[in-house]
Automatic annotation (TrEMBL):
Protein name, entry field: Chaperone protein HtpG
Role description: Molecular chaperone. Has ATPase activity.
Protein's gene: htpG
Family: Belongs to the heat shock protein 90 family.
InterPro entries per record: HATPase_C_sf, HATPase_dom, Heat_shock_protein_90_CS, HSP90_C, Hsp90_fam, Hsp90_N, Ribosomal_Su5_D2-typ_SF
Organism: Ectopseudomonas alcaliphila
Location(s), subcellular: Cytoplasm
Length: 632
């Protein structure tokens, strides 16, 4: 290697400094993970070279055999990892090793909790695994040359992890990257062949290219030249038979493709043969990534064609509501020069997408049935994303609905644990509808006046409080032949759950209260669309119902928050004729006082529904006036 030229010292991005400080002060409880991270990066570099070489075979520079070599020097206290993958140019080294903007480091730092074990789990997810080298090393040197560049354009990068790094141009004959770790005092255990072999077998056995270490000659004289031996299986895990693969191997492979430190909740490994030929290995994670709700963020499966890596995050094989699924798909039916544009559509893609979607939904069904506690973990992390499904995937609407979980008047507190099958299993005789109520929070709707008649009759109601719920229910109209009914919308009809006597009594009361209805219409005027006797109430004096075709409060608030114009809609004022306040109102001879009381009841009904008052000052004024009169 020739003398260094174009040498410069640069400062790390502020977030990198914070990250390095975190790493160096033993963020990982498990130090040996550093080797898995570096091997994983080297494997990605080999994948990228294979892909680029499809269009430009000259990048292979006559050496198509890709591998990772791991060596150590006990005397110098170093561990060296070398790959002959794509390599990096000077600009790429500065971009990738000096800043981590692409990895969302600011988000990473915001997510830190101060709990070392929890925080360590974030590192792989944010793509900052290279910096784990500083857990065991007090200096890291990188020598790299991008495939296709001349030997004179090698790059040297070095840092002690203290806020700055050095970059220089060097001569490097071979393409790829060599990383030299100068071990800290006390970390000499890693400069040992047996230790390194064990770590490779434990974490990186699934890596699909050979990881070589110098052959050890116990008691024999070592040859002059280093003999290398492969210490991992070096075959793509998904190409092996399921019966040959241990659970631990599946779990480690997930950590590689999912950039996660925790085990997945479930996985499905499947080989399809016949008209279409492909293999898939799909995983359900146990934890949501930081960018789950950024629908534009990169997502998707790793795509291979005939075992050749084509692209990360191919999002054409699963619908957007399943964007949390990790894994690989390896097809025999796509061409090696496939591009994102070609993947947009076509019978092969459509057929694979349909089959993979069904496979994921089956996997989730099995998880819910066999491991309900794990499914609770899944639902907590990904339930709101799965709720996007009925709007996006009409063909699987019923299947997705079966996977949804809700809080309910029969459930325990606000836990979303009730499935639609659970609900139907408890349905009342003669009940032909599934009743639900949406609202801002569980605390707000659990005591809603809209539920009074349902409590009286012992009918279960689903309580929906996620911001997406009202939108979801506009697409989810029925399940297992039973229609969904919003208990706060339209004129409530309990069908066979109301006896003929009940219905007759309701008609008689409505007729008897026609005079009060007209007076209330006159008092409330333009504020209401209609006034009527309520069949919903048993304890409260009044309630506001939503028109059958009108937007609910949840949807109105979402649209308003996003700056969209919300169509004007007036509520329906329903009153309970048996309530003492309504009886008192009906008997009020003074029209001004009647109007004040009517407005107080209207505003109270709006507050009970979770809405804000249009004129709070007027409400307070009327209430104070009433209190003064009562105390006089």
């Amino acid at each position: 290697m020739s003398v260094e030229t174009q040498k410069e010292t640069l400062g790390f991005q502020t977030e990198v400094k914070q990250l390095l400080h975190l790493m160096i002060h033993s963020l990982y409880s498990n130090k040996e993970i550093f080797l898995r991270e570096l091997i994983s990066n080297a494997s990605d570099a080999a994948d990228k070279l294979r892909f680029e070489a499809l269009a430009k075979p000259e990048l292979l520079e006559g050496g198509a055999e890709l591998k990772i070599r791991l060596s150590f020097d006990k005397d110098a206290k170093t561990v060296t990892l070398e790959d002959n993958g794509i390599g990096m140019s000077r600009e790429e080294i500065i971009a990738h090793l000096g800043t981590i903007a692409k990895s969302g480091t600011s988000d990473f730092l915001k997510n830190l909790s101060g709990d070392q074990k929890k925080d360590s789990h974030l590192i792989g997810q944010f793509g900052v695994g290279f910096y784990s080298a500083f857990i065991v090393a007090d200096q890291v040197e990188v020598f790299s040359r991008r495939a296709g560049s001349p030997a004179s354009e090698g790059v040297y990068w070095s840092s002690k992890g203290e806020g700055e790094f050095e970059v220089a141009t060097v001569e490097k004959a071979e393409r790829g990257t060599r990383i030299v770790l100068h071990l800290k005092s006390g970390e000499e255990e890693f400069a040992d062949g047996w230790r390194l072999r064990n770590i490779v077998k434990k974490y990186s056995d699934h890596i699909a290219l050979p990881i070589e270490l110098p052959k050890e000659h116990h008691g024999e004289e070592a040859p002059a030249d280093v003999e290398w031996e492969t210490v991992n299986r070096a075959s793509a895990l998904w190409t092996r038979l399921r019966t040959e693969i241990k659970d631990e191997e599946y779990q480690e492979f997930y950590k590689h493709v999912g950039h996660d430190f925790e085990n997945p909740l479930s996985w499905s490994h499947n080989k399809v043969e016949g008209k279409l030929e492909y293999t898939s290995l799909l995983y359900v994670p146990g934890r949501a990534p930081f960018d789950l709700y950024h629908r534009e963020a990169p997502k998707g499966l790793k795509l291979y064609v005939q075992r050749v890596f084509i692209m990360d995050q191919a999002d054409q094989f699963l619908p957007l509501y399943l964007r949390f699924i990790k894994g690989v798909v390896d097809s025999n039916d796509l061409s090696l020069n496939v591009s994102r544009e070609i993947l947009q559509s076509g019978p092969v893609i459509d057929s694979m997408k349909s089959a993979l979607t069904k496979r994921v939904l089956d996997m989730l069904e099995k998880l819910a049935k066999d491991k309900p506690d794990d499914y609770k973990t899944f639902w907590k992390a990904f339930g709101q994303v799965l709720k996007e499904g009925p709007a996006e995937d009409f063909a699987n609407k019923e299947k997705i609905a079966g996977l949804l979980r809700f809080a309910s008047t029969a459930g325990e507190g606000d836990e979303q644990s009730v499935s639609l099958a659970d609900y139907l299993g408890r349905i009342k005789e003669g009940q032909d509808k599934i009743y639900f109520l949406t609202g801002e929070s569980f605390a707000q709707i659990k005591n809603s006046p809209h539920l009074e008649v349902f409590r009286k009759k012992g009918i279960e109601v689903l309580l929906l409080t996620d911001r997406i719920d009202e939108w979801l229910m506009s697409y989810l109209t029925e399940f297992d032949g039973k229609h969904f009914v919003d208990v706060a919308r339209g004129d409530l009809d309990l069908g066979e759950l109301d006896s003929e006597e009940d219905k007759k009594a309701q008609e008689e009361v409505a007729k008897a209260k026609e005079g009060l209805i007209e007076r209330l219409k006159g008092a409330l005027g333009e504020q209401v669309a209609e006034v009527r006797v309520s069949h919903r109430l048993t304890d409260s004096p009044a309630i506001l119902a939503i028109g059958e075709q009108d937007l609910g409060l949840q949807m109105r608030q979402i649209l308003e928050a996003s700056g969209q114009k919300v169509p004007d809609a007036k509520p329906i004022f329903e009153f309970n004729p048996a309530h003492p306040l309504i009886e008192r109102l009906d008997a009020e001879p003074d029209e001004d006082r009647f109007t004040d009381l009517s407005h107080i009841l209207f505003d109270q009904a709006a507050l009970a529904a979770g809405d804000s008052l249009k004129d709070p000052a007027a409400y307070v004024q009327r209430l104070n006036k009433l209190l003064v009169e009562l105390s006089a």
